[in-house]
Design brief:
Elements (H helix, E strand, L loop, with lengths): L1 E5 L8 H4 L8 E2 L2 E2 H11 L4 E5 L4 H10 L6 E2 L1
Parallel strand pairs: 1-4, 4-5
Antiparallel strand pairs: 2-3
Length: 75
């Protein structure tokens, strides 16, 4: 099963809290917000996720090239 996540907004309302991080990488406890979402999608049977990123996309790509969740293909 596939899913698409829109993860490329400017994050202007969160800027004071997350600094230079893209909002999808905003830390929630020990992990970025997007990691929790990917985990939930995986628990629902999703194995292929398309990340629709724009703003600060390099940070997101770089993070998940090192921290790819097991069992999920990210594009």
């Amino acid at each position: 099963m596939e899913a698409v996540i829109l993860a490329g907004g400017l994050g202007t309302r969160l800027q004071k809290a997350v600094g230079s991080l893209p909002k999808s990488l905003a830390p929630i406890g020990k992990h970025p917000f997007l990691s929790y979402l990917l985990g939930w999608l995986q628990s629902q049977g999703v194995s292929d996720v398309i990340l629709a990123v724009g703003h600060r996309r390099k940070s997101i790509v770089q993070h998940y090239s090192r921290n790819t969740p097991n069992g999920i293909r990210l594009r």
